[in-house]
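Shapes recur. Our protein:

. . .
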Amino acid sequence: MGDMDDEPTISSTDALADDDPERHDYVLANPPFGKKSTMTVTNEAGEQEKEDFVYNRQDFWATTSNKQLNFVQHIKTLLKENGQAAVVVPDNVLFEGGAGETVRRKLLETTDLHTILRLPTGTFYAHGLKANVLFFDGRPGRAEPWTEAVWIYDYPTNIHHTLKRNPLRDQDLQEFIQCYKPGERHKREETWSEDNPNGRWRRYTLDDILQRDKTSLDIFWLRDKSLGDLDNLPAPNEIAEDIIENLESVLESFRSVLTQLQE
């Protein structure tokens, strides 16, 4: 929202190409999914082909063609000293090695990565792609890591959504909001315990995470009832509807590719 006379604030340039000099109190982002950044080049035969494109920025912790990792690094640079960010990322950002591990470690050290909301397949995209929301706050430089603990809300286990027939709705996230305690994060309490192993809200200390292979944040603890328990499989009509929806989504993707080839 803005005044009619304001200059447009939307730019069609590559957001990852350079550091934006402006710093912000809040950054909310759902960067485009897709693992690698590419660019179209003309080869020696005069044919166009795509090549992996690597952003070589001095303010990035790692140089990589993984655009999701690049967006996380870029968004961190956009925050003011105590700015707040919420960023949608696919699962590979949580577990990928190499540059992924470097980015996760630096994020834990230089920001307060306080919350991860794990979302089920069908929230944003079909094809079995899972999404997560990282919540982190900017902090000034210091030697000690800023993240003391990461609170994780495991929403997807034993919950099923589809893009069209059973989309995620506001009421589905009310429990997460109550656990998150906006404005009162110091009052958070785990719903998981040894006495309540089905609790979806759990705290992991920085030491817990650093001891994990590749500093992985790909953390689950609830038992998936659909595995090895035929009685808990979805109803046949639900399975059929999922198959139809996924096939329709695949066809849409093929049509998009065909349109690009015909241009």
User: Anything to note?
Assistant: The mean pLDDT is 84.
